[in-house]
Write a structure and sequence with these properties.
single chain; mainly alpha; Alpha-lytic protease prodomain-like; 6 helices; 88% helix; Cation diffusion facilitator family transporter; transport; transmembrane; transmembrane helix
Length: 192
């Protein structure tokens, strides 16, 4: 199982790293906070997969500590997105909905592919669960980006983009709390 898990993690890491660059460039070009938030989420996920690769086969205590680190990454991502949305509200203009929609669809395809690879590992330890939660949240976020693109196109203003960026931050907060609870529980179990 470790060999299969490693291969899946490597595939997920490569897809997420590539999509970080694609979405960051597209988000800057389109002036979309939702795309930039999703790009940072791809970067955080790539880092999470790298951490997971580092602890494959390690003791439960190390895997739980890695999950704690991941929950902190997710929390930091949420804080950045909320701050970025507030700044965009104060200073921003309406993003380009065509770019948002096209890149959102590409990101959705990438995340659904990764989620399908990870689905069989969704009920493992906190480390495995954190990887699944990130992938699930990403697919939800991509659908939301595409809906924001439709909203921006229909209204001509940035509100749909900012709302979706905030929803993505809220998903990261929720996921962070779930992973944190399970990791702390596993650390308590190991200490007994």
């Amino acid at each position: 199982m470790r060999t299969r898990w490693r291969r899946v993690l490597w595939a997920a890491l490569i897809v997420n790293a590539a999509m970080f660059f694609v979405e960051m460039v597209a988000g800057a070009t389109a002036d979309s906070r939702a795309l930039q938030a999703d790009a940072l989420d791809f970067l955080a996920d790539a880092a999470n997969y790298a951490v997971s690769l580092a602890v494959v086969g390690a003791a439960l205590s190390w895997r739980a500590r890695a999950a704690l680190l991941k929950s902190l990454f997710m929390l930091g991502f949420a804080a950045w997105v909320f701050g970025s949305a507030i700044l965009a509200f104060v200073n921003g203009t309406a993003p380009d909905p065509t770019t948002m929609g096209a890149v959102g669809a590409l990101a959705l395809a990438a995340n659904v592919g990764v989620a399908l690879l990870l689905y069989r590992y969704r009920t493992g330890d906190a480390n495995m669960r954190s990887v699944w939660i990130c992938s699930r949240n990403d697919a939800i976020g991509n659908v939301a980006v595409m809906l924001a693109a439709v909203g921006v196109f229909g209204t001509g203003n940035a509100w749909p983009d900012l709302i979706v960026a905030s929803v993505m931050a809220a998903l990261a907060l929720t996921g962070s709390a779930q992973v944190l609870r399970q990791a702390l529980g596993e650390l308590r179990l190991v200490a007994e």
